[in-house]
Every structure is written in C-alpha cells, then in structure tokens.
Amino acid sequence: MDKTNENEKIEFDLILQAIYQKYGFDFRNYSKASIRRRIRYRLNQSNLKTISEMQHKLLYDRQFFGSLLLDLTINVTEMFRDPSFFKTLRKAVIPELKKQPFIKVWHAGCASGEEVYSTAILLKEEGLYESSLIYATDANDVVLDKAKSGIFSIDKMKDYTINYRKAGGLASFSDYYTARYDHAIMDNSLKKNIVFSNHNLVTDSVFGEMDIVMCRNVLIYFNRELQDRVFKLFRDSLRLGAFLCLGSKETVRFSSYSDNFENVAENEKIYRKNGECL
Amino acid sequence: MNNTEMTQKSNNDYITNNHKYKVIVIGVSTGGIKALKTILSVLPSKFELSVIIVMHRHKDADGYLEQLLDNECKMRVKQADEKEEITAGVVYVAPPNYHLLIEDDGVFSMSVEGAVNYARPSVDVVFESAAEVYGKGLIGVVLTGANKDGSQGLKIIKEAGGLAIVQKPETSEVSDMPRAAIAAVKPDYVLPLEKIGPLLRKLESNG
Ligand SMILES: C[S@@+](CC[C@H](N)C(=O)[O-])C[C@H]1O[C@@H](n2cnc3c(N)ncnc32)[C@H](O)[C@@H]1O
Predict the structure, then answer these.
(1) Which of B60, B72, B76, B207 fits a disulfide with B20 by CB distance 3.0 to 4.6 angstroms?
(2) Which residues in chain B touch residue A223, judged by CB atoms under 8 angstroms apart?
C-alpha cells in the first residue's frame, strides 16, 4: 500500500472518529469500502479540497453533517423488494402468526418506510393487521419523517405494482394509495398500527418480545463484529419461536449466534429463534 | 511488464502468492455469457489468481449464470457472498441488484446504493474498490456491452498501477463498452476474446 493511500485511510478513520465524538453516530465498525465511497462522493459534491478540510467543516457545521449522514446511511429502498421474499413470508410465516392473539413486528432500518407499508398491506390482506403492532425504526430522522408521512413518488408505483403482484398480492395495488399530482399517499388504514421511532442498532438496546424482526439490507453495511452485536440484539428481542428476516445477501449463519436460529427458508433468509440457548 | 519489480514486491505484499497479480476483475454486459465462457474455459482448476465478474443482469436473476459457468469451467464458479474471503482459484460473480465492493482485508461487501451508469452491480464501482485494495496486483478486463460502464473504473485501475485489458471492439458482440474504455484509458492490451484467456494464463505464471 503506498503512502498517499495509507494517509487517506487514516483521514477517513479520523472523520468517523470526529462524527462519533461530536454527534454520537458510530460508523467506526461499518464496512469501510462503502463508507469511503460515500465520503468521497460528498467531497466531490462540496467545494472542499481534502478530507482534512471536510473534517473541520463537519465539526463546525451541523448542516453539513446532516448531508453527510444522508450519504453514509444508504436509504435506498422499495416496496415489496425481492417479491419472492414476501411471497414466502405469506406462505411460511403468516400461518404461524395466525395462531397468535396479537403480533408485534419490528422493522429495524426501515428507511423511508416502503418496506413497512409492504408488510402492513400483507398483514391486512391476511386479516392480521387489526391485531398487529408494527414498530418501524431507523437511525436517520430525515428518512423516518418521510416514512411517517407515507407519501411516495407516483413514478415508482408502476414498479411497485409489479413487485406487489409477483409477491402474491391479493387485491389491486392502487387500492392502497391515493394519487395526488406526482405523489402517492398511502392509505391511513395502513398507518394506524405503525409506530415510527428513532433507534440506532449500534448504540441503542433491545426492543422486547417481538414476533418478527425484519432487518433487511442494513447488516451488509456492518463489519462482522458489529453484525454479531446486532444479531445478539435481535435474539434478545425475539420471543421463542419468533421470526428473523434478513436481506437476500445477509445470513445469520456465519455469526456467533447461528445456533440460536433455525432455517425457515434459507433462500429467502427467514429464520426462527429456537428454544435451546436461553 | 517489469519483472525485477515483481521479485522485490513478492516478499512483502504477496507473501502467500509469489505472482505479481492477485486478482482479475472482469466487467461485461450484453453478450456476456458467451464471452465469459470463452475466457474462463481456458483457465485451469488450480489457477492462482481470483477472478471477480460483474455482469449486468436482471435484478431478480437466479443462480443460472453461476451454475452455467461452473459447469463449463474448470475453476470453481460461485456467487460472491457478503463478507466472504476472496480466495485464489475461485471465480466470483457479483450478485444481482447489489453493488459489490472489496474491503481492505480481502472480503466482499455489498451495497444497495442507487444504480451507477444505470447498473447495479456497476462495473465502475467494483473496479474502483478493487483498485484501492489491490493496486498493482490487479488486472481489469472490459468486455462486450452496450454502455460505458467500466471505463472510469478501468482508468482508476491503471492509475493505481494495475493492468488494463479490453476486448477488441470489432470482435465484440456490442462494442460500446470496450470503445468507451479505450477512449477513457490507454489499455495495455486490446485483444479478441480467444486471446484474452491465454494472456491471463501467461500473466499468472510470469506476470
Ligand atoms: C438500504 S436501507 C434498507 C431499507 C429496507 N430495509 C430495505 O431493505 O429496502 C438501510 C437503512 O438502514 C439504516 N441504518 C444504517 N445504520 C443504522 C443503524 N446503526 N441503526 C439503525 N438503522 C441504520 C439507514 O438509515 C437506512 O435507512
């Protein structure tokens, strides 16, 4: 590794240290490649010349931190992303949930909420929504506000309709929103049992007695050590026999908590907490 | 290529691998399956470099591509897994609908960041990330394809001291991607498909 590269890596680490000390967001155990990519992107968008200049700006300009925070927490999401996952959820998990009088769902890292509304639709179609409570959390307040509003761009609805159908949707997707100008406003009946709140998986603690935890495409941004911390958090937040759902490239299998979970559908990354190690 | 430099380097940078090059990254789009088969089928099962492939494909694509290449090649072919260690002798294919990145400790990581050059995975993204980790130990290859993805990444590979190979545009099923690469950077080799595999073998043994 040559010198410039080495120095640059130190500078990136210093930025993360500064963010942590000043603002309390801890990115130090995130996967470095994506973090560096995003910091570089912000540098290019700004009129700053070096990463050191950026560090100074970060410390003295809260607004600048806000924009960097949006860059670092990749908030890209969609409704019914990976339709086959939602299809399997319907087939393999819903029948189990139907045995419960009341269902608690936790969407950790829900971004702007598209995934949460997808689950709400699914629960509604299965007659479970009225006896469900959905906690939707993210570390980033900006996207959380968007999630609360339940207003999305109308341009996306075409793709979402396709996803919805592939996911085994039972109705017509347009039943769930009202189109106004270039917006789609999600139906209020989907919102009423969702609680949105800020929760940081790195620094905050357990959310009790969940029946499902869905945390999709968040762990890919964490290194192995941090992934382990979060798997422990999930294990401790789930009741026995409850479900853990991950993104299509995430798995509990290489973590220290692998033994705590059995496969429901390994292909779709659906697991279930087993009784033993408690 | 400079052989003396290689012998010096081999003691510190690549203790487990005496070759100058460590990893080959291949970017390809339209016409990719045929092109990949041609190149990979020439490589032996104990090839001492790792091969990483980024091919543009549908976001819901299943493991068909990996299976097909695995059947046709002597090297083991698999889809790259999250935080998986990159090992010599294995061909890794970037999963659909994710950007593929490489960490300093030689493991894969992934991101759902928006499309780059209308593509996710994007060739530029993995080229840039690989260049940062492997520097002089990296070979970048741009093959047939219908956009300009890969050209900026190939430039970064060269700037980091790596080697750039581009499929000869006239021999490409779709020549946009190779042409864009040649316009962005002066490649070390511009070759028809059949000559790329044998070159990679040569670079393996005396690169
Ligand atoms: C790519 S989105 C995933 C959205 C959705 N789950 C999906 O799969 O479509 C990742 C989300 O994780 C959130 N995130 C990142 N770090 C987090 C942390 N430490 N705690 C909670 N959420 C976090 C980001 O703010 C972002 O909204």
Answers:
(1) B207
(2) 83, 103
